[in-house]
Amino acid sequence: MRPAPMLPATGAGCEPGFRGVICVSIGATDALANHNTGGRPRHDLCFASANPGTLSDLRSELGRSCVGVRLVLAGPPADIHAAAAAAAECGLLEEEITLLCDDVGPRVVFCGHCRTATTTVQAPGAEVDCQGCATTLAITDHFSRRLGGYLGFSAHAEEAA
Question: For residue 9, how many C-alpha atoms fall within 13 Å in the half-sphere facing its CB?
Fold first, then answer.
C-alpha cells in the first residue's frame, strides 16, 4: 500500500490511489448486496473461490489502493480467512477488514505436527484426520489470522501407544 495523497482520489473503481471500500464476494454469497459503505466509493470484486490466482488478483487490487482503504470479505469461512490473510500480507490492519462469514462452509485446520492444511466442514471441538500425516486432529478454538485457519493437535496424544 502506498501513502495517501494530499487530495483524495476521485471517481469510482479501484484506480491507483483508491481509498474507498473494496467489497469482495467469494462463492455464491449475497451478503454484500446491501452492504452500506457510509457514502465512501465502492469497488466490487467477485471470485468463485479463494485460490492462488484470485488471491493474487486481490493483492494486485490492494496494491493499487492507498492508506485508508477498507476491505469487506463475504463468503465461506476458509475462503474469507485466506483472503484476509492475503490482505494482512499487503499491510491492511485487522481494523480495516470486515469479515461476513457464511454460517456453513469449509474451514482450514493446520496440523501442529506436519504443518499441513486440511480442509473440513467440522467445527472447532470436533476431530478430523490430517491429510498430511493421517494423525487424528482435535480442532481447537485457536484461530491464526496469519495462516487463515484453526490449529489442530493430536486428539489422542495422551492415550497409551
Answer: 23
SS (H, E, C) the chain: CECCCCCCCCCCCCCCCECCEEEEEECCCCCCCCCCCCCCCEEEEEECCCCHHHHHHHHHHHHCEECCCEEEEEECHHHHHHHHHHHHHCCCCHHHEEEEECCCCCEEEEECCCCCEEEECCCCCCEEECCCCCCEEEEEEEEECCCCEEEEEECCCCCCC
**Residue holding cell 473494496?**
22
Enumerate the domain spans of the chain. 21-101, 107-154
pTM of the model: 0.69
Arithmetic mean of pLDDT, 57-61? 93
pLDDT tens digits, 1-44: 544 443 333 333 456 667 789 999 998 877 777 788 888 888 89
Q: For 44-58, what is the mean pLDDT?
A: 93
